[in-house]
Amino acid sequence: MKKIHYLLLALVCGVFTGCMDGDWDEPAAKDTIYGNSDIKEANVITVKDLKTKYKNEISTLGVYKQIEEDLQLKVVVTANDIEGNMYNEICVQDKTGGIFIGISQGGIFGYLPVGTEILIDLKGLCIGNYRRSATIGTPYTSKDGEVSVSRMPRALWQQHFTYTGYREHVTPELFADGSTPTTWDLTMDAGKLGTIKNVTIKQAGYFNSEEGENGTYHDGIKFVPGESAFVIPGFSTSWYFNEQISDTNDGVAVQIYTSSYADFAAMKLPTGKVNVTGVLKHYCNKKGQRDQWELIMRSLSDIEEVK
Fold this sequence. Notes:
Layout lengths: L1 H19 L26 H7 L1 H5 L5 E2 L5 E8 L9 E6 L2 E8 L11 E6 L4 E5 L2 E9 L5 E4 L1 E2 H6 L1 E7 L5 E5 L8 H4 L3 E7 L1 E7 L9 E6 L14 E5 L11 E6 L15 E10 L8 E5 L6 E3 L2
Parallel strand pairs: 4-7, 4-9, 11-12, 16-18
Antiparallel strand pairs: 1-6, 2-3, 2-5, 3-4, 5-10, 6-7, 7-8, 12-17, 13-14, 13-15, 15-16, 17-18, 17-19
């Protein structure tokens, strides 16, 4: 009986040991219903080299280009739509930089969680910008005639990416500490994941899109400790910092952008000094004016009070 008991115990231990081996976070790429498993790694280009190659399309409003070469990106997902502050897009990054991918689909976080490494087949997709933030997707013309690169159909996206089978912990870059000046480059820095440390909230602004193309931009809304929420009710809102009013190059403001659809929109902003993490997005109006840097938080946990 003792032999049988020890044999059973050994088998049970073997089962549990087998369950614990390997990377718990590693996706079973061969079993997934998402992506295109026919894509094999070849002709990988870095994000930096891709942005350099298409610098004109990225920096010029209304300009885009369809990629005709057999090129791939090998990147890690750094931001998605998990708490609603990003919509129909993800942000991906390699060691050289980041870029936004427009996808006409909700719930992307379910199959592309942060840290997932993917290959993107670029041939046939378009590269350009949305308000000067580098974006991969398909062309879109608004009712006002504004041309940009926006979200691609989800069926097209599914044909252009595949999992590598690996996950990676992405460490945010330190963008600034307190009043440290920022010197971001329009082409190379937009799309990166980073943190601004030891800053305090100053005031907010929002654009009343209900008024149409000539809508009013409301600025100078004071921060009230303990009362101010992330969003002015009904409007996507931008909060500025006391320490980071502008960068040293051209006076471009730095702000936290929060969508009115974010899960944490109605939550109260922390009081005192905070550290804020997010993906960096450049934004201007359709005339190329009011240049601003937006730090897009992915979730409520991206802002923390400094104790």
